[in-house]
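Work package 3, deliverable 3.1, input record:
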Amino acid sequence: MTDAARRPRVLSGIAATGTLHIGNYIGALSVWAKEQDAYDNYFMIADLHALTIPENVYADDLRARIREIVALYVACGLDPQRSVIFRQSDVSAHATLAWILGCATPVGWLERMTQYKSKSEGVSASAGLFTYPALQAADILLYQAEYVPVGDDQRQHVEITRDIAQRFHHLFGDVFTLPQPLIRDSGARIMGLDDPSVKMSKSLAGLRDGHAIGLLDSPKTIHRSVMRAVTDSGSQLDPEHISPGVKNLLVLFETLTGFSREATLAKFAGQGYGALKREVAEVAVEKVTEIQAGYRSIREEDTAIDRILASGAQLAGDVANTTLDAAMRATGLR
Ligand code: TYM
């Protein structure tokens, strides 16, 4: 048994639906990268999930985005030697197990998912958007993952994964490890710069200038977005009255620098919001510049991406197919 195989396993992923932003970095990627030596790591590019809103899919875009995300994974610190990086659709066990789990999932559970409720509002939603939690459960359960490092918005998905696994066990017998979410205390929900009442999201980033800090944005764009960030009618930092917009800026500063809340408040006490914004813009530009340097060097040798995906497909496939086989035996399909 290798060292990595003795460690608890983690599985996580990012849907290939738009350009990654600093919320994805702080809530997910930075945690995955930092903890790589503590776990046996599986990180995927969730391309099947990108099809849940087919109106937003353009084949060439999706192909390009998948490569962009692989390069960003590496640029954000994932080491292909220590983490298995793979594309979800390369491992067909995901779709097969999603079907089996979907048949063990009561419709009422899917109807309660907040993501389905918000994304299906006012549109004719696809069946895929509705059954998405069964696919995500398959993603996690195939790898027998003990932990799922995610941002706060994914908590409900990990909870339903546990429920689906338990229902499967009740119906067919034990096959899966019950996963737990791994969610950081601060920074697990970065809010929109233009509207601190909604979480920073890839879809809104594509629609509204100034909503997000994109990992591939220019320093000028980042400065502009942060300086325009919504705060409140006050002008100075008042530790007794911290509005959602100001809190979001504090959290960005703290998670990017490692400053505690106390130290941050001491640093900016009595200063105007402009000073806080300038510092946030500066540390964000510094981080993003570093990520972009890594990103460019990977993209210069684009065949490296093919090698990462080929090896990831093999390693992930081995683990996933073993679990799928056990699930198929339990149900009588084998
Ligand atoms: P996605 O692609 O929306 O987000 C990827 C990761 O980034 C986190 N995140 C955030 N964290 C902090 N602040 C934010 N504003 C913010 N926005 C996003 C998310 O919580 C997530 O960790 N369905 C998933 C992808 C997925 C997956 C999985 C995740 C598919 N299969 C299996 C874990 C395990 C999604 O759409 O995440």
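The chain has two domains: 4-184+302-331, 202-295.
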